[in-house]
Model the fold of this input.
Amino acid sequence: MIRGIASGLDEGRTTHLMEELCREAAAFRFEVAPNPCVGAAVFAGGREVGRGFHRRWGGPHAEVEALSAAAGSDAPRERWDLLIVTLEPCSSLGKTGPCVEAILASGISRVVVGALDPDPRHRGAGIERLRSNGVEVVLLEGTAPLERVAPHFARWTSADRLRRPRPWMIAKWAQTRSGQLTPPVGVGEGRWISTTASLEEVAVLRGRVDAIVSGVGTVLADDPRFCVRPPGDIGAAPLRVILDSCLRTPPEAAMLRSPAPGEGVGAVHFLSLVGVGAARAEALRAAGSSVHGLHGAESGGHVSLSAVEAWLWDAGVRRVLLEAGPTLLRACLAAGAVDQVRVYTGAVNGGRGPSMGEWLGSATLDGRAERECGEDAVLEGFPRPV
Ligand SMILES: NC(=O)c1ccc[n+]([C@@H]2O[C@H](COP(=O)([O-])OP(=O)(O)OC[C@H]3O[C@@H](n4cnc5c(N)ncnc54)[C@H](OP(=O)(O)O)[C@@H]3O)[C@@H](O)[C@H]2O)c1
Done:
């Protein structure tokens, strides 16, 4: 029996529970990234009375979910005596309140933690705050290794990333069976590859990022709106950021029109090369957008991707959805700027433009998962840095 674990829960059962919580938590990895996957369970006298998980980025943390599940159980709060959690509870204010405060408010007297927070700015702080308030904390290191449960979080909190912060970038694209991003002429109005079910999933994803990033090639070819429609959260529409080095976007672009009823739209920002086309910049500003001059890439005449990342970070953007054509998509993948991919392969043969097949064939995707959405095949994963 580990000292501090409630009666009825020996080390073997606790370790088994920890593994179960880790496994279930990891199922939400693509929804929570860059946040960690976390699971938690509340006990009363050795009986589990509430279980919770961090299910989506910006949503409640696992501890808070477990506590509210316990509140809905038949066990009165004064009998709750133990919380098991796979990762050290957070002690700082993020998108949600600190979990340590919720645990302290619950009156739980013992907490078993599976792993320390890897972020050196917070490591140990949650445990220390609990202990200094009289809560007994047992650290069962090795039972919830982050490299297995949430390897993406280890990347997010790596020394390099903390030194030069950049947003978490999710690249999403739809491709034909041959890996091309544009369907053959005459199919899907020359534009659509995936089915309605996939478009609805993307609408939800758009409502869960801070910004959508695309290239001027897509704007000129498709005249997209990049809006959020139901079932996405239209009240949480992300910024729309277009990489347009020479400001080729016409001020009449659909993106610059007012939202239609039932549509959520974020502010539009064009990132161009410093000093290009003052008159074009003025016309785009007059149409309601903002234009920002960035320095160019060393390799060519485009805006520099690292300058784009720095601009996004300074604008408060932490989670980005890249919805670009093959030119910008491949540039971001080659630069190692993409942290996560979601690829919809529609039931369409052939297509136009370069294929993503070669990249997909050579990339290693951590946490890789394949599933179906309507008639489309969906592939998700975290590209391993090269
Ligand atoms: N199936 C899908 O998921 C999907 C999604 C989006 C688009 N598409 C299709 O893709 C096609 C358009 O492809 P595209 O490749 O022209 O569009 P794109 O990748 O969205 O835009 C490319 C443009 O981005 C600009 N850019 C700015 N900074 C860049 C950088 N650092 N590196 C690379 N490019 C940079 C470049 O123009 P400047 O140099 O002028 O800035 C470049 O020409 C359309 O047919 C569209 O329907 C498909």
In short: The longest helix spans residues 11-26. The CA atoms of residues 12 and 183 lie 55 Å apart. The first strand starts at residue 39 and ends at 44. The chain has 14 helices and 16 strands.
